[in-house]
Design goal:
Layout (H helix, E strand, L loop, with lengths): L2 H33 L4 H9 L1 E6 L2 E2 L3 E3 L5 E2 L1 H16 L6 E6 L5 H6 L5 E7 L2 H4 L3 E2 L4 E10 L14 E5 L4 H8 L8 E5 L2 H9 L5 E5 H10 L6 E3 L5 E9 L4 H17 L1 H10 L16 H8 L9
Parallel strand pairs: 1-5, 1-6, 9-10, 9-11
Antiparallel strand pairs: 2-3, 3-4, 6-13, 7-13, 8-11, 8-12, 8-13
Length: about 300
């Protein structure tokens, strides 16, 4: 190729790079303007083409792993619905979803250090959590109850003082138990499990007198037990928590988009259909339906998104 031709070709190549960079800059500026995106997370999602979901893989039916090891569940469906909205709103058709395992004990730290963008596990909406993160409209209302051996007929909430009770580390059951026995001379001995499954395992192995967990997770673990008839729920509720998705305090725009999507799902009936799918129908990995009907308090929240209840 002649020197003059080579020179012209190099000029054209440089011009092409400038034009490409200009269009990228224009697209990115349009993204920022259209999103009003001061959120660092939204900017990073657009730059990297990926969004990271925090998934607690041991909270059947909310979030857990299927036989292939893929995360599934009620909150996974809700989070993926939000990802679809982000793809559409910001024209990111190739946005990749990455999942990172979380627990009740690690979720705040992983959110704060930017290891995850959205926490899709079980996040109680209460005064403590609202100081650390932004939480969406409630997607579930969780009752914390106690389960014990069926033949332990003398055990009740009133007689838990002095007994050992398994609770999941980082959850709301332990504070509820302390409140219950505050005026009793006999305190509950708390034995912590890392997940719902190994917390329930404390009761199966006889290491505790009872376990305190959110009812859906406890019923799912009982259904998985080869001796499910041995375990019964005690009368009474320790506490009730609204459950939501969780975002960093700085991610106000992403949080607002999530609430917009959730409100639309609630008003259209999509949210109740998802709830029925995971709580009232047979699901992968479980021999029977969890069997927790939509609570009246959650029905009221679905009818009027934004009229949030607050846990303790």
């Amino acid at each position: 190729m002649a020197p003059k031709v080579i020179k012209k070709w190099n000029v054209l190549q440089n011009l092409g790079r400038v034009l490409r960079n200009t269009w990228v800059a224009i697209f990115f500026w349009n993204f920022l303007v259209s999103a009003h995106a001061t959120d660092e997370t939204l900017v990073r999602i657009a730059q990297t083409g990926r969004i990271v979901l925090g998934v607690n893989d041991n909270l059947m039916p909310l979030s857990y792993l299927d036989a292939s090891g893929a995360p599934i569940g009620y909150h996974m469906d809700v989070c993926l619905r939000l990802v679809a909205a982000i793809r559409q709103r910001f024209d990111l058709p190739r946005l990749k979803v990455v999942t990172v395992p979380t627990t009740l004990s690690t979720r705040f730290a992983l959110l704060d250090n930017r290891s995850i963008d959205i926490e899709c596990g079980s996040n109680a909406v209460n005064i403590s959590s609202l100081k650390q993160a932004l939480l969406t409209h409630a997607t579930m209302v969780s009752e914390i109850r106690v389960m014990a051996l069926a033949d332990n007929k003398d055990l009740s909430l009133a007689t838990l003082g002095g007994k050992s009770v398994g609770v999941e580390a980082g959850g709301t059951a332990a504070p509820a138990l302390r409140t219950l026995t505050r005026s009793s001379p006999l305190k509950v001995k708390e034995v912590f499990g890392r997940f719902a499954s190994d917390t329930f395992g404390l009761l199966e192995s006889g290491r505790v007198d009872a376990v305190a967990l959110a009812t859906p997770y406890m019923l799912a673990q009982r259904a998985l037990s080869p001796a499910s008839e041995r375990y019964v729920l005690l009368d009474g509720v320790l506490r009730t928590d609204p459950i939501a998705l969780m975002f960093r305090l700085q991610d106000e725009n992403l949080h607002a988009l999530a609430n917009e999507v959730l409100a639309g799902m609630m008003k259209s009936g999509e949210m109740q259909r998802l709830y029925d799918k995971w709580f009232l129908q047979p699901i992968p990995g479980l021999p029977e339906a969890v069997g927790v009907p939509l609570p009246p308090k959650l029905r009221a929240l679905f009818d009027n998104p934004g009229s949030e209840m607050l846990g303790i």
